[in-house]
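Troubleshooting: if your tokenizer reports a length mismatch, compare your output against this known-good record of 296 residues.
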Amino acid sequence: MNRDMLRIMLSIPGVLLLSIDILLILVLFKESIPVLTYEGLRIFTEFQWNAAEDPAKEVYGIIPPLVGSLYVAILAIMFAAFFSISLTIFIQEIFPYRARFAIEELINVASTFPTVLYGLWGLTLIVPLVRQLAVKLGYVNVTGASIVTAGLVLSIMIAPYSTAIIKSVYASVPLSYIEAIASLGATKIERAIIVLKMIFPAIVSSLLLGFGRAVGETTAVTLVIGNAYRLPLDPFLPASTVTSLIANNFGMATYYKYEYSALMFAALVLLITSAFFSYIGLRLANRSVRIVRGEQ
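Known-good structure output:
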């Protein structure tokens, strides 16, 4: 097999994947045209979701669930940042070296768990705890299913993913840097703080990649968020995200003239949002690796 033929064969999978991604965007855009023609820019200003048998009475607005998606994802990465950074310091600086492999493998396995397991775990454990906390804060008739519950569940779900990235970059810091820090008499915690400052772009990138995953999560969020269509101003009240909106309404969407198209447009907006943050995260990850290696 000559070199040109090998190059062509190796490029086929990449071209195929890129074509599928482009086709996905085109299909979502095509299916969104009916509701964009009907609603226009009102789809960004309406604060209700009303599927009616009379097409003239149908009203669709994606801002409340979109804000809900961003709200949940932001809370998730805030909690995940605490979990991931703490776990990285514990593994790299405190945990016995010979036992690190076991906990690292446990983290890797946890990142592969089906998301429905996290959702069921959150439903049975986190929801009651949040309900008790909300009652102590003065809330009445709360179920515990809320924005903050979804954020906590998602943070546990993405923490292994973020931890793996942060730990990998942390471990790639040159030994000469570590020895120089130790020669100054720094304690383990002081050394960890210095190294974390060095790999700060990697921390941000891991959280942005986690944000891209969290904003698109469906099953776990749908189980614990409460699925109430409202603008999520209070984190202890039920709300909805774009993914939970799609999951709850897609089954009956074809019975109405525009709801199917509205859900497709919501999916398109979600895709663009997730892709944007994932792209920024990947760029920062590459930059952080170059900085640690001294290439920039």
